[in-house]
Amino acid sequence: MAFELPALPYAYDALGPFMSAETLEFHHDKHHQAYVTNGNNLLKDSGLEGLSLEEVVKQSYGKNAGLFNNAGQHYNHIHFWNWMKKDGGGKKLPGKLEAAIASDLGGYDKFKADFVAAGTTQFGSGWAWLSVKDGKLEISKTPNGENPLVHGASPILGVDVWEHSYYIDYRNARPKYLEAFVDSLINWDYVAEMYEAATK
């Protein structure tokens, strides 16, 4: 199954002023495209052709670093674009998800503080995550293109803390970018959909 670059689900300028058109053009058209191109080249003759993207990510982990990095980043970014929307973020969460954040993570404010802290303290490139593991929500962080799939969890929200995700708009102020992501960009409906799928 060849990797394909999905179209952005909104216009390049839709997420301003929190994420600029310039950032999205570089991030989607150049960086994500490179993961797709490199991933497809590495997928050939890997023995993993024909598997779903999730399976390629899981089965290449620890065995084929090049393929894993590109497949992982492709998976992460397919969802990253959908985890954001115009006029997103804030406390307007679908009920079931809100209840789970309250019971598993101590409520929205604690979730926000812990999620921003995970992204801020991820040294170098990587991601911060909200995932379902053993039926419960957890916050984690991973280096580079790694994601919770390879740790027995189902990611339902992730934020990219590679510099290409924020440097044009925020320079080195990663915490500011993370706060803007939570307050103004998260597409909670998509998170809720992934939560439903992960807890079936």
TrEMBL record:
SUPFAM superfamilies: Fe,Mn superoxide dismutase (SOD), C-terminal domain, Fe,Mn superoxide dismutase (SOD), N-terminal domain. Residues 3-84 form the Manganese/iron superoxide dismutase N-terminal domain. Keywords: Iron, Metal-binding, Oxidoreductase. Its EC number is 1.15.1.1. Residues 95-193 form the Manganese/iron superoxide dismutase C-terminal domain. InterPro entries: Mn/Fe_SOD (IPR001189), Mn/Fe_SOD_BS (IPR019833), Mn/Fe_SOD_C (IPR019832), Mn/Fe_SOD_N (IPR019831), Mn/Fe_SOD_N_sf (IPR036324), SOD_C_sf (IPR036314). It catalyses: 2 superoxide + 2 H(+) = H2O2 + O2. Mn(2+) binds at H27, H77, D160, H164. Belongs to the iron/manganese superoxide dismutase family. Destroys radicals which are normally produced within the cells and which are toxic to biological systems. This is Superoxide dismutase. It comes from Allorhizobium taibaishanense.
